[in-house]
Write a structure and sequence with these properties.
about 500 residues; alpha/beta; Rossmann fold; UDP-N-acetylmuramoyl-L-alanine:D-glutamate ligase; Protein-Tyrosine Phosphatase, Chain A; 3 domains; six-stranded mixed sheet
Length: about 500
């Protein structure tokens, strides 16, 4: 059963046109240990707000940057964070829809309503921070690859001396931020890069001047009944952004579109705005012909990407990231950078020198000869692309696909697709499902997915339990030469961290 964005964001004020953050404005961020909410806190603080934060889930890698900026965070929820008696202590509250979808009557939200404090999504705060800097908003969207591509564009622009601001849904390296890896960056350049997520209208507060559309596929089955509903949502957002830009100064919207993706082509067919200019980009190979009229074309061979259309001569890039999907991302990033006025040689240098973002095929360590990778993959298509890249990087080595499913509704709706993909690994291990924004946790289970994988795999999959128990299970079974690919969007990173610690301790004890 699907729910509307209004139902999932119950109690939140509707998205509005961005406005500058007032100096000293008191903003309280609920759920600030998440990737996006932590960025909202950092950006609001950076443009002059007085920010407080809370999260009952405990510390995550995203909050180290908040500590670095001395943003106070409480590890509990309390209506007193909003105010006492009839007096509010904050001017507005930013919250994630992961909370409103399961607990619209959360005590802090109830306190805000009682005191008349505006309740907004954290995306609205990010949009307001961009309005405060006055930088040109560039939004990177799509079903897959948003974090890698937005981080890549931030790196490329910074490498070219453009000094952008940004929100990226994965940790940017410390060299790009304030000395601590974070999901936010404040710069003095002309651009503000933002990762724009289609879930339940999350991208509605963003009215970019340039949008990068990477791909469009069915996901979020709690919101979208089918692929057509996904395509409709992207098209409606593009039209709204074009209308907003046109109303403001007549400029309209530029869409850098990966026309090699069938879903993107379906979205473009639905776009009705007269003030949308499409810059078409595509990765050409033997399996897919380049549509006529494509302006930026990438050709990948032996790890070298040739780019045509970003200058007077071809640009050659030795790909720093594995996988055809990343080459397709690179073509779109190059097209966006060229649209922003970056010369072709600087585009090539910026693409080639990118080291990736956090939790995207990130090498965590190699204790006792076991390679441990951490990745955010949580959709069958993304998992398939990541497995292909890993098996290409480590040919002939046994690969463990270790997956913490992200949400019950996605796992139930795509159970067979997940099973087919995970069965391609030599070993598959399924951790307990991360509920996230799910109100119903009875519709499937990690055991059900493990059974489905086992029916398709040479070796039976296992479901040991929590992320901690999953790491313990792996530590007893992996052998030197194995490659462990940990995937998921909840606490799956704990599996990688704990496995490395266990293997390292065992190695030390054996000396």
């Amino acid at each position: 059963m699907t729910r509307s964005g209004h139902e999932i964001g119950a109690g939140l004020d509707p998205a509005r046109a961005a406005r500058p953050v007032a100096q000293g404005e008191r903003i309280h961020v609920v759920g600030a240990a998440g990737a996006g909410a932590s960025a909202a806190a950092l950006l609001a603080h950076g443009v002059g707000a007085a920010v407080t934060a809370c999260d009952s889930g405990g510390p995550t890698p995203y909050v180290r940057a908040l500590a670095h900026e001395r943003i106070p965070i409480e590890w509990s929820h309390d209506p007193a964070h909003i105010g006492a008696g009839d007096r509010a202590s904050v001017d507005r509250v930013a919250v994630t829809k992961a909370l409103t979808s399961v607990d619209p009557d959360h005590p802090e939200l109830m306190a805000a309503r009682r005191l008349g404090v505006p309740l907004e999504s954290w995306q609205q705060v990010v949009a307001d921070a961009a309005a405060t800097t006055g930088q040109r908003l560039v939004a990177v969207t799509g079903t897959h690859g948003k974090s890698t591509s937005s981080g890549w564009l931030v790196h490329l622009l910074a490498h070219a001396g453009r000094d952008p601001s940004a929100f990226v849904g994965a940790l940017l390296p410390a060299a790009l931020t304030s000395g601590v890896a974070s999901t936010a960056r404040l710069g003095d350049g002309d651009e503000f890069i933002v990762e724009a997520d289609e879930y339940a209208g999350n991208f509605d507060p963003y009215h970019p001047r340039i949008a990068v559309l990477l791909n469009a596929e069915w996901d979020h089955p709690d919101v979208f009944a089918d692929a057509a509903a996904v395509h409709d949502a992207f098209a409606a957002w593009i039209d709204a952004a074009a209308n907003a830009a046109t109303a403001e100064d007549g400029s309209g919207l530029v869409v850098v579109a990966n026309v090699g993706d069938a879903g993107v082509r379906a979205v473009l067919e639905r776009v009705r705005g007269e003030h949308v200019r499409v810059v078409s980009a595509a990765l050409a190979d033997e399996a897919a012909a380049v549509p006529d009229g494509t302006e930026v074309i990438g050709t990948l061979a032996d790890g070298i990407l040739r780019l045509d259309g970003v200058g007077d001569a071809p640009v050659w890039v030795r790909m720093p990231l594995d996988g055809r999907h990343n080459a397709a991302n690179a073509v779109c990033v190059a097209a966006a950078a060229f649209e922003l006025g970056v010369p072709g040689d600087q585009i090539g240098a910026g693409l080639a020198s990118f080291g990736g973002v956090g939790r995207r095929m990130e090498l965590m360590g190699e204790p006792r000869g076991v390679t441990v990778l951490d990745d955010y993959g949580h959709h069958p298509t993304a998992i398939a692309a990541t497995l292909d890249a890993v098996q290409g990087r480590y040919p002939g080595r046994p690969v463990w696909a270790v997956y913490e499913p992200l949400t019950y509704h996605r796992t139930a709706a795509m159970l067979d697709e997940f099973a087919v993909v995970l069965a391609r690994a030599d070993h598959a291990v399924i951790a307990d499902i991360w509920a996230g924004r799910d109100p119903d946790t009875t519709i499937t289970s990690a055991d059900a997915l493990a059974r489905a994988v086992s029916a398709k795999a040479v070796e039976a999959a296992t479901a040991p339990g929590s992320v901690e128990r999953t790491a313990d299970h792996l530590a007893e079974r992996v052998r030197p030469g194995d490659v462990v690919l940990v995937m998921g969007g909840g606490r799956s990173y704990v599996i990688a961290e704990r496995l490395i610690a266990l293997l390292s301790d065992a190695s030390a004890a054996g000396r």
